[in-house]
């Protein structure tokens, strides 16, 4: 396996702006780092399951992908645009935000489910498995270990963005509307880049 190429691909794909990282930063800014950690764990669980499924069902997925790629892409784009809308229309309630109904939602489940409507995440899983794992490894243990590794990278990437959102929380709270607008525009850009790509 070309390890350096694998590492570069995984790091660049995981740590660049995308729905997971943008949502992690926005959640950390709005709800704090501890609540956002649940979202990051959910992203890791989602990456783990997608990578595992890609390892074990790669041939079937390769045959089915041409059929489901377009509907999946449209669903993912609609969901990202919905998230962008929710971010840009969220109200600044000061400290009361932490006690509103939003923090009561299951952030871990949200992070995991986001991976199943995130075309970038699914295509990442299939690409990394088809390019770097299956040609070099054939044991179920290696598939499990790579799935765990990529799930952990998903947690690290979203948590690093969440740290940024949390560290600059006071500043970002002062400029909440411009920050929310930028985050929403980044999500719209992510959605449009999926369609154009």
Explain this structure to me?
- The chain is an all-alpha fold and 197 residues long.
- It has one domain (3-196).
- 81% of the residues lie in helices and 0% in strands.
- The chain contains nine helices and no strands.
- The chain has helices at 3-15, 19-31, 33-56, 58-89, 107-114, 119-133, 140-167, 169-174, 176-196.
- The chain is globular.
- The two termini are 27 Å apart.
- Residues 93-101 have low confidence and may be disordered.
Helix and strand element order: HHHHHHHHH
Low-pLDDT stretches are 93-101
Average of the residue pLDDT scores:
80
Shape: globular
Strand proportion:
under 5%
- For the record, the count of structural domains works out to 1
Q: How many H/I helical runs?
A: 9
Q: What does the main sheet amount to?
A: none
* Number of strand segments: 0
Distance between the amino and carboxyl termini: 27 Å
Structural class: mainly alpha
Q: Please tell me how large the radius of gyration is.
A: 17 Å
Query: How much helix, percentage-wise, in residues?
Result: over 70%
